[in-house]
Amino acid sequence: MDEEKNIIDRTNRFFIEMSRKVLTEREYEILYQMLVNKKPMVMLANDYKLSRERIRQIFRDAYNKVKSITELFQEIDYYKELRDKLRADYRKEYRELRKWDDAEKNEVLKKKLIDSAFPFSKRLWNMLVSLDIYSIGDLAAIPLEEYQRFRGFKRMCKRELIAFIKFENIEELFDGYHKWSKKI
């Protein structure tokens, strides 16, 4: 029984602290005194020089505010889960649409970087040439995480490489592209 009471006290304390930003100072103090310190309404009425009915109203209003905020958080969590599910479904459908047959994939891998209409910076172009990368196939042969280990491949080169991959619409050729592209 003591353990149960202890859990209830900790839960009350947690919710009161979480609600501090939405409650007025007086609402917070009254809620805290009633739920955590277990102070009776009569004593609170005397301390605040208010009637017991007014203390009860303040408690009820504060409780309803906290309850509505809690419901709002639950609703936000629901929509976050829904958003994540929609993203996952979209990615799955996109991958299925983007599946290339072997001939098409080989054609894309053979494409020379110089034949692309993408405006490479001198820095990235020189980096790719120094690594003997002349085609999309050469580019895709190196894991994306490895590029950041090359001397001179900094944040700007990474951003430009991401832009090139998006420009050519070849994200699916690179394992872990989406995760890697978000780590800038």
Descriptive terms for the model:
0% strand; DNA polymerase, domain 1; 184 residues; 2 domains; mainly alpha; elongated; Arc Repressor Mutant, subunit A; 10 helices
How would you describe what is shown here?
It is a single chain. The chain contains 10 helices and no strands. It is mainly α and 184 residues long. The protein folds into 2 domains: 2-98, Winged helix-like DNA-binding domain superfamily/Winged helix DNA-binding domain (Arc Repressor Mutant, subunit A, Orthogonal Bundle); 102-182, DNA polymerase, domain 1 (Orthogonal Bundle), CATH 1.10.150. Helix 1 runs antiparallel to helix 2, helix 2 (25-35) packs across helix 4 and helix 3 crosses helix 4. It is elongated and about 85 Å long. It starts with a helix and ends with a helix.
Quick synopsis:
By secondary structure, this protein is an all-alpha fold. Helix content is 71%, strand content 0%. Helix 1 packs antiparallel against helix 2 (25-35).
